[in-house]
Amino acid sequence: MRVNSSWRVLGVLALLGAPAAGAAPTFPDATASDPVALGWMTGSPPPADKQIRLEDGSYYRFPQLRWTFSHWREIFPTADIPRGTGPVAVLPRAERRDIDAIRFTVLDTSQEMTWRESLAANYTDGIVVLHRGRIVYERYFGAGAAERPHIAFSATKSYIGTMAATLIASGKLDPKAHVATYIPELKDGGFGDATVAQVLDMTTGIKFSEIYGDPNSDVPGYARAVGMFPRPAGYSGPVGVYAYLATVPKQGEHGAAFTYRSVNSDVAGWLVARASGVPLDRLLEETIWSRLGAEGDADMQVDANGTPLAAGGFNARLRDMARFGEMLRLNGRFNGQQVVPAAAVAEIRRGGDREAFAKAGYKTLPGWSYHDQWWFSNNAHGAFMARGVHGQAIYIDPKAEMVIARFASHPMAANANLDPTSLPAYAALGDYLLAHPR
Amino acid sequence: MRVNSSWRVLGVLALLGAPAAGAAPTFPDATASDPVALGWMTGSPPPADKQIRLEDGSYYRFPQLRWTFSHWREIFPTADIPRGTGPVAVLPRAERRDIDAIRFTVLDTSQEMTWRESLAANYTDGIVVLHRGRIVYERYFGAGAAERPHIAFSATKSYIGTMAATLIASGKLDPKAHVATYIPELKDGGFGDATVAQVLDMTTGIKFSEIYGDPNSDVPGYARAVGMFPRPAGYSGPVGVYAYLATVPKQGEHGAAFTYRSVNSDVAGWLVARASGVPLDRLLEETIWSRLGAEGDADMQVDANGTPLAAGGFNARLRDMARFGEMLRLNGRFNGQQVVPAAAVAEIRRGGDREAFAKAGYKTLPGWSYHDQWWFSNNAHGAFMARGVHGQAIYIDPKAEMVIARFASHPMAANANLDPTSLPAYAALGDYLLAHPR
């Protein structure tokens, strides 16, 4: 099927995180859009109709994006996040064939679905499930592969929030201080008198419209400034994340409501760099990545000035995403060391303000909250998540002692499109593992 | 001191390999241009006058390029060349303090210089010397670091030539066949009726002027097409390596003389991808990089179509460059296995046609020759080299059982500017190790 140009615009708008308005277009399914079967970018050179490029926008069309998400560094400049020289933190294998058949009801429907069916429904590129630290399930599809880093999009934000909580726990970052205390450049902008905590919880009152499908939103301008979208000839807007942030004005009051705006995460990234005195990519390496026993280096897309994209530029291997989640589940202790201070994890897992969150009106997330760049279900298992557009997820279920890491390349950016076949599947798996441990 | 704009143009022209015409401008020395001391790209963000960017050309100005060469992937899109999962091939250490004091005479002068002095004279970023497989010397300067990949520029070509020789040894690539046999797209261009061997030895008769300092040369157009130089607004030329190669016309006869033209290496890269049926980056991983016991992943800059830049886009850690050289010294056997067939190495080390080479008129390389994308000194030690602009080098001295790998960021691109303080230093070190083994 053809993907029309208005969808391409919608797609670009959607790069950053929240639900799309309007009726969903239909798309070829996971099998019909498999990037390996379709032969994208194979051959030297690939045939013209199998080429994927930044400049013509094909990198972010569907189904081409199913290739792009597993080849991000081949499209964009990236900074390496080295794994360090220590041994890999082994995740023992105890794979379970019974998981595929677990049944659940699709959200807000009477439709039943199996775990296995949900993977295709969600255009899953890879999924790994840890139960009590052991790999009980692991699958890859399409361009996904265990050794290949995949773009995490807004799941990046939860790494930033974890670093912020760490700096707060050590007293280097004051959650009550104004942004301008650390970033004088933002003193006269919309963020200047917001507190660090408001930025981390996305309750700032700023003018930044992140409504997908609205061509008048602020997202295209943002995407061009940071370099996720090519800048047209004659472009005269801000270049780079920091330059863009200074242009964001205030609107309303800080602290009144949760509103998902990715620019908060970019400010959070700037804050942790300033508070630590260490560039964001190096801080991530030093405080988290080099201590996780990761299998591979990670990387972050950088803007034209070399600034890592805190709102969504992180790429890593799937099992390493799971290690990060497992570290959070274990209160910061993983790979034989306290990676993140227990106090920082405790503060993160305190969760956010449900009333403030409810004002955002997420239909698929009733009763949820947002804190320190993490999403909290507030369900009976205390599950919380890192979430990125097109289906990137780390789902931590403390009661079931379960961590799920998933990469996907769903045609629709907003996770509202994936939640109905994901969240009840995750909950059902948590219940199942709790009831049927091995 | 100020670097004027004509030098910036000269610098870009010089990206690809050979001597610059005219008198050399003067530059701050290695200490005065140290990128760490100068604070390039430090701070979040760096101060405006410490920023390095692709779009404004600062990435390739001196002294900024001294930072860029160790941060290539932060500027350009790159394809990963994974090291694989095997153990690192340990290089035992037997460091020698006596090396620093070795004296030599600067080429074509009566000036004496010590080994240690030569490193600053050459704006060395890193240098490692293996003697009988042991590290006898290793130093890093400026932005250079053991763990940080550095751009290899045209030393990339020798990896391509080694893969080509491997395919020839296994019968998958016929050195006598015409280019068009493998690449029909080039049938009507200048390369079509050149043989594979002529491409590998750079004796093709094509119209491609690689004279540095000549603004009418073909190099700026090439650099824009492949993406090493930003394309201006309204650019309507070819995009990508392969598209550019098809535009190169014939001039003169194939096989008549050696002329250093980087486009031959791009054709060589295309040939090995076609002959093997494997994309260039994957072939490098499968046949060489994953078998070397490398310490780190390498990577290759890719063009806008995802094609790796065979003429100069390779980045790797210095000790891994030395491992590659050591493998060649040991006739292809390294890390407990035959990495490259002995027959392929034997063919490479046969060297090239001195008469054909002499016609190129390299003042610093009398009696040398070129074969399979390697440079042969034909001296008493049988030394041969991989060479890249601004001082990238792998120097293999079989008689002295010595391999030198060097990264540098000399202000002048052409190695003619570094050879006078490098080649006699390497020769002197080879003589010294032969006379004073330990």
Tags for this entry?
alpha+beta, seven-stranded antiparallel beta sheet, four-stranded antiparallel beta sheet, 438 residues, disordered N terminus, globular, 15 helices, homodimer
Describe the oligomeric state of these chains in a short phrase.
homodimer
- Residue-averaged pLDDT of chain A, rounded? 93
- Overall body shape of chain A: globular
* Biggest interface found: A-B, 38 and 38 residues
Kindly state the number of beta strands of chain A: 15
Give the uncertain stretches of chain A in residue-range form. Answer: 1-21
What structural category arises from helix and sheet content of chain A?
A: alpha+beta
Widest sheet, order of strands of chain A? 5-4-15-14-13-12-11
* Portion in strands of chain A: 5-15%
- Number of helices in the DSSP assignment of chain A: 15
SSE string of chain A, helix = H, strand = E? HHHEEEHEEEHHHHHHHEEHEEHHEEEEEH
Helix content of chain A: 25-40%
Q: Biggest β-sheet of chain A: count, sense, barrel?
A: 7 strands, antiparallel
Radius of gyration of chain A over all CA atoms, rounded:
20 Å
How many angstroms does the end-to-end distance of chain A come to? 45 Å
